[in-house]
Amino acid sequence: MPQPPDDERRALSAFGTRVRELRRELGLSQEDLADRANLHRTYVGSIERGERNVALLNIHRLARALGVTARDLL
């Protein structure tokens, strides 16, 4: 599968970094966040590493689990 362009990779990485920052601020493990968001732990890890292009509903789930709005994640 071809790699996304640099600007898209930066966007994925920035989103993942934001999720990680908020998760750590709450003192949650990846597993804790995954449970709260009804996602798999390895999926959360791949988001935080900037490896996933996250679907809108999963952004909503993550935001709710982190106690922020989807806008706060973006």
> What general form does the structure show?
globular
Tell me how many strands there are: 0
Overall tally of structural domains: 1
The end-to-end distance, rounded to whole angstroms, is 25 Å
What is the CATH topology assignment?
434 Repressor (Amino-terminal Domain)
Radius of gyration: 12 Å
Q: Quickly name the level 1 CATH class.
A: Mainly Alpha
Alpha plus pi helix count: 5
Percentage beta strand? under 5%
Mean of all residue-level pLDDT scores: 96
Low-confidence stretches: none
Describe the 3D structure.
The N and C termini lie far apart (25 Å). Helix 2 crosses helix 3 and helix 2 crosses helix 4. Helices cover 69% and strands 0% of the residues. The chain is mainly α and 74 residues long. It has one domain: Orthogonal Bundle (434 Repressor (Amino-terminal Domain)). The protein contains 5 helices and no strands. The radius of gyration is 12 Å and the shape is globular.
Short description:
The chain is mainly alpha-helical and 74 residues long. It has helices spanning 6-25, 30-37, 41-48, 56-66, 70-73. Helix 2 (30-37) crosses helix 3 (41-48).
